[in-house]
Amino acid sequence: GVVPSKASFTMHSILVNHFLHGAWYPKGGAGEIAFHTIPVIRKTGGNVLGKAPVQKILLDSQGKACGVSVKKGQDVVNIFAPVVISDAGIFNTYERLLPAEARALPEIQSQLRIAAHGEGGFTVFVGLNGSREELGLEATNYFMYPGNDLDEIANRYLTSSREEAAKNIPLLFVTCPSAKDPTWEMRHPGKSTMAIVTFAKYEWFEEWKDKQVNKRGDDYEELKKTFVDAIMQAVFKLYPRIEDRIEYISGGTPLTNQHYIASQKGEIYGMDHNITRLQAEAIATMRAQTAIPNLYLTGQDVCVGGFMGALQGALICTSAVLKRNLYVDVAQLKRHTEATNSKK
């Protein structure tokens, strides 16, 4: 999620190592992760609330976290709990959900000084008429670049005016989720999907931030279209058979990310995971424990960006809450699983 000159060698190595061993795709799509997690939460006495946006973290008279306030329709409901774990990211948790006096605590301010917003993202979602075989789609992620000097082309793009930006797009991540899913053809025969992602500056779209989603006006839609058209011209070179088979196409700007995943600057990977973020001091400062008793952070801001980074953040957080090193438990579980499988 950063330009090469700001990327940590360690972070890049971990990522490459992960992919060398093979990336995986959940059967049925990414939604299956939530669908299979929710019953586990409910089985242990928990619950999952939908359409209940958190308004604030509740603090008791001693300044300890004691629950959250959520919106249910037009009403606000307080839900009390002995421990509050926030996966909303460092900026939302500290700047939006905590009262001003808690936000002003020196430990919280020192964490916020280290943190910077990651780059915003622009996504194109494409629905296609045709099967994987008909359209020549692959279960592969492509990274497309118009040149070899990645820093130069990325910096030129990110310093462009919004009118010029679409002519300077430095990279495209192109993926076909339907081609990766072995259950897709049974559920949606003769149809395919594609998603394309690139960077985009929040500032290019900021003037429409207070407008309602899907009602931001012609100028916004026209600006989006310049990005979508430029992106698709590059994608047609990779997958030429799709050009006349598009049934649905929609562009998502940093404002789209802001609306749907509550990222303040439209960032995909939460806080910026640049070299500064991965220095020893920053790693030691950004912990699951917070200066507010009973309040913990989890997810990618605790560790590193992406799905696996968020999963590590969860293990770190759970270890802190339970005061137990869950990595030891995971290692033992792995050994037990391997021993059991070898006996079969």
Automatic annotation (TrEMBL):
> What's the domain of life for this entry?
Eukaryota
Cellular localization per UniProt = Endoplasmic reticulum membrane
Q: Its topology with respect to the membrane?
A: Peripheral membrane protein
**Cofactor(s) the record lists:** NADP(+); FAD; NAD(+)
Q: Return the EC number.
A: 1.3.99.23
Which SUPFAM superfamilies does the entry link to?
FAD/NAD(P)-binding domain (SSF51905)
Q: What is its main location?
A: endoplasmic reticulum
Q: Which reaction does it catalyse?
A: all-trans-13,14-dihydroretinol + A = all-trans-retinol + AH2
GO cellular component annotations of the record: endoplasmic reticulum membrane
> Would the keyword Protein biosynthesis turn up in this protein's UniProt record?
no
| Keywords from the named record | Endoplasmic reticulum, FAD, Flavoprotein, Lipid metabolism, Membrane, NAD, NADP, Oxidoreductase, Signal
A GO MF annotation of the entry reads: all-trans-retinol 13,14-reductase activity
Query: Family, per the entry?
Result: Belongs to the carotenoid/retinoid oxidoreductase family. CrtISO subfamily.
Give the PANTHER family listed for this entry: ALL-TRANS-RETINOL 13,14-REDUCTASE (PTHR46091:SF1), BLR7054 PROTEIN (PTHR46091)
What name has this protein been given in UniProt? Answer: All-trans-retinol 13,14-reductase
Source organism (scientific name): Rynchops niger (Black skimmer)
Q: What is the lineage of its organism?
A: Eukaryota, Metazoa, Chordata, Craniata, Vertebrata
